[in-house]
Amino acid sequence: MCASPSATPTASAAPTPPSSSHAGRAGSACIPARGGSEEDDEDDDEDEGDDEDDGMNNEVVITGVGCVTPLGLSLEALSTALREGRNGFGEVAGFDASAYPCRLGAEVLDLELGDFIESSKTYIDRTSAFALAACASALKDAHWLGDESVGLVLGTAWGCMDSLGLFAQKLVEGKPKFVPPLPFTHSYANAPNSLASIEFKLRGFNACLTCGHTAGLAAVEYACRRVALGKERRLLAGGAEGLSEAIFHAYCLRGELNAADAPLPYDPASKGMLLGEGAAIVAIEEAESARQWGAPVLARLLGWAACQGQPDCGLRIADCGLKSAIGNRQSEMLPAVADGLARSMREALERGGVRPGDVDAIIGIGCGLPALDAAELDAARAVFGDCRFRVSDSGPKSAIGNRQSAICPVLTSVKGFLGEAMGAGGPLSLAAALACLEDHFLPGAEPLGRPPRTLLVNAADPNGACVSLVVGSA
Question: All domains of the chain, ordered by start, with CATH?
Answer without folding.
Answer: 10-299 (3.40.47.10), 300-473 (3.40.47.10)
